[in-house]
Structures are given as C-alpha cells and as structure tokens.
Known about the structure:
Elements: E1 6-12, H1 36-48, E2 53-57, H2 71-76, H3 86-94, E3 100-106, H4 112-125, E4 130-135, H5 140-145, H6 154-174, E5 181-184, E6 189-191, E7 201-202, E8 207-208, E9 223-226, H7 231-240, E10 243-246, H8 251-267, E11 274-283, H9 287-298, H10 303-314, H11 336-341, H12 353-360, E12 368-371, H13 373-387, E13 391-395, H14 401-416, H15 429-434
Parallel strand pairs: 1-2, 1-13, 2-3, 3-4, 4-9, 9-10, 10-11, 11-12, 11-13
Antiparallel strand pairs: 5-6, 7-8
Helix pairs in contact: 1-3, 4-6, 6-7, 7-8, 10-12, 13-14
Amino acid sequence: MSKEMRFNAFAMNCVGHMAPGLWRHPRDRSERYIDLEYWTDLARLLERGKFDGLFLADVLGPYDVYQSRPDAAIHSGVQIPVNDPMMLVSAMASVTEHLGFGVTCALTYEHPYPFARRASTLDHLTKGRFGWNIVSGYLNSAAKNFGFDEQTQHDDRYDLADEYMDVCYKLWEQSWESSAVQRDRMKGVFADPAKVRGINHSGKYFKVPGFNLSEPSPQRTPVLYQAGASRRGKDFAAKHAECIFVSAPTAAIVKSYVRDLRERAAELGRENILIFAMFTVVVAPTDAEAAAKLGEYYSYVDFKGALALMSGWTGVDLGAYGPEDELQAKKTDANQSALESFTIADPNRRWKIKEIAQWVGLGGRGPVVAGSPTTVADRLQEWIEETDVDGFNFVYAVMPETYEDIVELLIPELQRRGVYKQEYRSGTLREKLFQHGPYLPESHHGSQFRR
C-alpha cells in the first residue's frame, strides 16, 4: 500500500510568488495579501482540506540581478512588495486547530537570542503548531541593506548557521528545566530561579551568556524545515532538518536529491525525515477542462518577471543571454542547486533561456501537472513511487482557486484511494507529522543540548 501523502501549501506574504503575472487573472485574489482576512480565509480552506501545513517563503531584498537592477521585479510584482510572514501566523492559528505553519526566517541577519524568543512565542500561541524554515539567504540585495558589502560566501554561511542552530538549541532545550515554571499561587512562586540557567555560549560568531526569555513552549524547538540542496546544504539538512523541501524540474533530479539526503541523514542515525517536492497542479473535473485552464493561466505569465525570479535564485543575470542561448553552469554565492538543476543536474537536458522563462513562469522550479482528479492523483502517486518523496509543497497559480480545486476535487480522490488522511492526528505539529512526542527525538543533533 502506498504511503500517506503529505501536503503543504506554498505561499508568500506578497502578490507574486511563483507565478509572475498571474495576479492579473480575473479570478486571482493575491493582490489582497495585505488584508488579514485573505490569510485567515486561506487557513480555513487548507484546514478543511487536511493540509499538513502552510509553508511561507520570504526574502529580505529585491530580485535585482536581472539586468543589474530591480525594475523587472518591481514592475511585475515578483516577490516585491513583500511583508513579514511571521506576523500572519497568530491570526491564522486563531481560526484553525490543526494546520501547521512553516515560516521562513533567514538566520544570517538576525541574532539568535531575539529570534529564539519570537519562535517560542509563536509556538505558544499556536499551541505547538509552529515550524521554522531555516535559510541563510541568497540575495546580495539583502546583504547590502543589512550593511554588508556583499553576502557571505555560500559555504561560510552554513558554518555560521551551524553555530546559530546550537545557540537556539541551547536556548530552547537547555535554559529552562521542565519544572521551572510552577505558577504556585499559594507560595507566590511563578518560576524557580534555580531551574533557569544561562547557556554561557561563546563561539566564533555568537556570544550568549543568558537564557531564553520565553518559558518552554509546547515543542520547545519548533519543527525544523530546510531547503538546502547544494552539497553543503545537504549536510546541514541531514544534521538539522526534520522536513526537507526539494525543488527541481524533473523526477530524475528530485530522486537523486532524495536518495542523497536520506543517505546522509541515515549516516547520522536519522531515519525519520520527511521530504516535500515543489509541485503545481491544475485540477478540473475533466482532462480537457484542466488543459483549457492551464492554457488560460499561461496566457497571463510575465516571462520577463520569470527571468528576474530565476536570475535572483541563481545569481546569474539571464538578461545577458539571448532567448536561444543555453544557460551555463558557473559558481555563484546564490542558490547553487537552482542553477545546477537547469544546467548540470540532468546530463540529458539542456535548457535555453526561453524554455527557462516558460518553465519558471508558472510554478517556479517544480513541474506542472494538469488534469482531472484521477489523472493528477495518478501522477502524484507515480512521483512518490519514483522519487521517494513523502509529499508536496503545492505552489498556487491563481489564489485561492488552486487550493480550492485541490481541496474540492483532488483530495477526495486521494482519500478514496486510501493515500490521504481522513482526519488530523492529535497533538503538536511534530506529533502530527512523526507520531512521536512533541520534542526533538533522541536521534536529532539538537536533543544533545536537552537537560
């Protein structure tokens, strides 16, 4: 029997996430991203569909690699303007009971001490449904706006990230004993100071003598997501991530990523990781209707915006190429796997610039599948069998239509096949995903810091 599929919705607190130009579609509502009701309505919809979580991306700078300026991204609304994703979580948690929230926060530009408190706060307010997507950033524009001449070299960012994680683990797992908070009204003791201790961390990048300002949250450490697919990124993911996000245009590349990630994690004694692939599905009652809808969507794609998006990911100015030119591999300090997946990852495939614009214009770096519920369900099951992923991060084409179609048409078909949950499990996000306790398992690196 096929394993249970896991679904995340993949979105961003902006108008143009992975489908540049589609905000112009008459049924699209993503320009309302600045309205709180837009997000609470989405959360209710996803919970109705028993989605495991809402995975929120983020960037801290504009995409200004294309033609060496941000004009194309601004003109097309390509992940700009973009608002803070963490501020959405409390409101969405208040209208849901089970939906998890995986939020992207770049550790490169925020000290771990205040970040640990923010994460603990959201884990409290969501009753243990908060997850952190750990990123180190890939945009020079972000580094410059934080006062750096340029971003730190790719592998060096991961060295900093390893220490950052250790500081967070110490703050979350070590600084407060489980029985420290007593709330004893009769004795007048809220917390026992003997059970709260500073972490006394002094390392290459950070010095933190004190303890977490927040009391232990339901999960202590939030569920940890990560999306590194470079060689250094995979090492980091195998050590820290519980859920790993992969994105590539073909099943062959994803299969290679997944096999490598699972082998690296197994070497560290970690078997229980979940891997999600980026995917876009266009579902309609019949294959013909889905094909017509897909064609309609493509008519709104902004291809210059797509090239601005891909240029930002790869650190390569695709505006310097002609439409018939092939993208060439080169070393950059941006997202190395993004460049490799369209150059050297598949030796049987060469990508011209115009083909990349067409591909990225709807769904980013992942594949697009259109069809009836039966057709799409077949394809998803084939992907799970072929690549060994556990589920999918679904990118939207039109908001909220893409997710409405998944909830109303696709999920009932998957439930009928017995490969999608009928009800949520109880407990925190970690308990729902992994069927063990609310805290990091003993096999995880972060558990060594637990007192």
